[in-house]
Amino acid sequence: MTKNISTKEKTIIVDIGARYGLHPTWKNYHSDTIFYLIEADPEETKRLNIKFREKKNVNIINKAIMEKSGKYNLKILNNPAMSQTEDRLDVSPLFWDEKKYQTGVNKIIEVNAITLNELREEISNPIYFLKLDTEGSEFSILKNYNFFEDLLGIRCEISFNKNFSSQNQDTFTSIHTLLLKNNFVLLNIDYDGKGEHYSKFTNNLERYGILQTTDAVWIKNPEYILKLDNCFEILNYIIFLFRNNSPDIALFILDKKREVVQLNKTSNLFKYAAYLTAAYFYKLKWIPNQNIHEHEKFYEDIFQLDYPSMNKYSDSTYYNPLGI
């Protein structure tokens, strides 16, 4: 269901494989956003439409995104979050023994698919951020995309080995090579030393297991951003960095592009970037060798606002909502 919303100066975000709704990094995002949640399963699409019916900026589209448009068989697994068009290989110890039932096929349904290029044409506006979680088909969806120039950031599920029968190799190598060619750099992966464990005798406080799958985040090369004079795109890039565990790069870009950013200081984007900066500096204030006066100077030089230092931050319901 596509809602009638003006897209002028809106941040377009597309989530492909949107079961259960928005990814945590999109929650409580800035207000000038339009989300397109793409979900192939019609039953899940109905749930999403109910869940987001009061959100005018969230559109739910019941289609699969594939390399080629047409009809495909979607396998709905006992664990529906793992539903797929691919044939999964039995390589993950997470789904052996008592969890093996999760990979069993509950039913097979026929779904309509379009390509990512066709989705972009249907939206008819630049897609700035893209998230893919399609259980093995991510590279085939991305490889022929014609609008990489518009994109500022991508979050994508990846594998470091062959997890599906149709794969020629791991998806990380293919996707990373493709994105490097399109002026992206790898920002981070969701990995903290805890892979897929093979024994129940595992110490959760230590590193363990084999890293097979995770999410990876890519951003447009910062050198490209430093050459931009488009404050809308620069602020969106900065906000994405804050929300994806890279405040150092966000602050670097803010510093280098302060004059451009200040041209947009009445916008919600600018205000949200200021909010994220103040919230990050508040976390730093007790860390050794951090100077709260330097935080204040940086903030006020960039945003030309009074810095919410110490009790101003703590007492503020803007930074600390009541939650009741």
Write the layout of secondary structure elements.
Blueprint: E1 11-16, E2 33-38, H1 42-51, E3 58-61, E4 64-65, E5 70-77, E6 105-114, H2 116-123, E7 129-132, H3 138-142, E8 153-159, H4 171-181, E9 184-189, E10 213-220, H5 222-226, H6 231-243, H7 247-256, H8 258-261, H9 268-284, H10 292-303, H11 311-315
Helix pairs in contact: 6-7, 6-9, 9-10
Give a verbal description of the structure:
The protein is α/β, with parallel strands linked by helices and 324 residues long. The chain has eleven helices and ten strands. It has helices at residues 42-51, 116-123, 138-142, 171-181, 222-226, 231-243, 247-256, 258-261, 268-284, 292-303, 311-315, and strands at 11-16, 33-38, 58-61, 64-65, 70-77, 105-114, 129-132, 153-159, 184-189, 213-220. Helix 3 (138-142) links the parallel strand 7 (129-132) and strand 8. Helix 6 packs antiparallel against helix 7 (247-256), helix 6 packs parallel to helix 9 and helix 9 (268-284) packs antiparallel against helix 10 (292-303). The radius of gyration is 21 Å and the shape is globular.
Beta-strand fraction estimate: 15-25%
Q: So what's the overall shape?
A: globular
Integer-rounded radius of gyration: 21 Å
Major sheet characteristics: 7 strands, mixed
* End-to-end Cα distance: 32 Å
Strand order in space, largest sheet: 3-2-1-7-8-10-9
Backbone structural class: alpha/beta
Total helix count? 11
Please, what is the average pLDDT?
Answer: 93
